[in-house]
Specification:
The protein is built from 10 helices and 10 strands. Helix content is 36%, strand content 25%. The protein has a domain at 1-73 and 171-181 and 199-251: P-loop containing nucleotide triphosphate hydrolases (Rossmann fold). Strands 6-7-8-3-9-10 form a 6-stranded mixed beta sheet, sandwiched between helices. Strands 2-1-4-5 form a 4-stranded antiparallel beta sheet, covered by helices on one side. A hairpin with a 2-residue loop joins strand 9 (217-222) and strand 10 (225-230). The longest helix has 14 residues, at 182-195. The protein has helices at residues 45-52, 75-80, 98-110, 120-124, 127-136, 152-164, 182-195, 208-214, 232-236, 239-248; strands at 5-16, 19-30, 34-38, 60-65, 68-69, 83-86, 170-174, 200-204, 217-222, 225-230. The protein is of the alpha/beta class.
Length: 251
């Protein structure tokens, strides 16, 4: 399946009362890659993400996932197809433990998201898989910690674990390292690299050192339009990209 396009947009456009936030974006994400969406502040990156998962409806254009048009589909239906946006669908329960949060996400995958009244035995059956996911994101030492008590970077790791519980084919990560310390950034970047091993990742990311380390392919947006595409070396030396960043502040 090499070079297969898993996610594609054609002429994706979003207007807000005369303001064009996303304008004719053609995006093609290759299966099994980490694809970064970058650009100066106000470039339309988050709007583009919201369109892909239909938290916003496009004004014009089409979206395809695994060759199937998903334009107009409900967010929950898109998630069931295997396209899951982390930090949105997978919001954690602050006063439940790490283990309980991941277990609930596993229940949601089974189609029983409100199994709170089920017997302890039924819930315990999910613990082994939950602990695998917790270990995968480096949270084994925090299994019994309430989500609200986790340090910020660890909380983002928990959100990734609850997303992985839904077994997505493709993950959309919206600024996964925003607001983190240098140590947390390195930890989350390593985690993203690890969890991308058998899936596709599309990420909006401000930290260009993270992008340079992780991304196989980069799309640069400016003023709602695609400014450049390619690997980090090609886009980082593109004069139009340099000008956009110098003129519009760092993304």
């Amino acid at each position: 399946m090499a070079n297969e396009t898993i996610l594609e947009t054609r002429g994706l456009t979003k207007e807000f009362k005369g303001f064009v936030a996303v304008n004719g974006v053609n995006l093609a994400v290759t299966r099994g890659t980490i694809h970064a969406l970058i650009g100066p502040n106000g470039a339309g990156k988050t709007t583009c993400f919201n369109l892909l998962t239909h938290f916003l409806t496009p004004t014009r254009g089409q979206i395809f996932f695994k060759g199937r048009e998903i334009t107009g589909s409900r967010p929950a239906a898109i998630a069931r197809l295997g396209l899951v946006r982390s930090f949105q669908i997978s919001a954690v329960f602050p006063h439940l433990s790490v283990l309980e949060n991941v277990r609930i996400a596993l229940q949601r995958k089974r189609g029983h998201s409100l199994d709170f009244w089920r017997t302890e035995r039924v819930l315990t059956e999910l613990d082994a898989r939950a602990r695998e996911l917790i270990d995968a994101v480096g949270l084994s030492a925090f299994e019994k910690t309430k989500a609200v008590e986790l340090p910020y970077g660890r909380k983002r790791a928990l959100e990734i674990a609850t997303t992985l519980a839904l077994e997505p084919e493709m993950m959309l990560l919206d600024e996964p390292t925003a607001g983190m310390t240098h140590e947390d950034v390195e930890r989350i970047a390593a985690l993203i690299k690890r969890v991308s091993a058998n899936r596709t990742v599309l990420m909006v990311e401000h930290n260009l050192s993270v992008v340079s380390t992780l991304a196989d392919h980069i799309t640069v947006l400016a003023r709602g339009e695609v400014l450049a595409q390619g690997n980090y070396q090609s886009v980082s030396t593109n004069p139009a990209v340099v000008e956009a960043y110098m003129g519009g502040g760092h993304a």
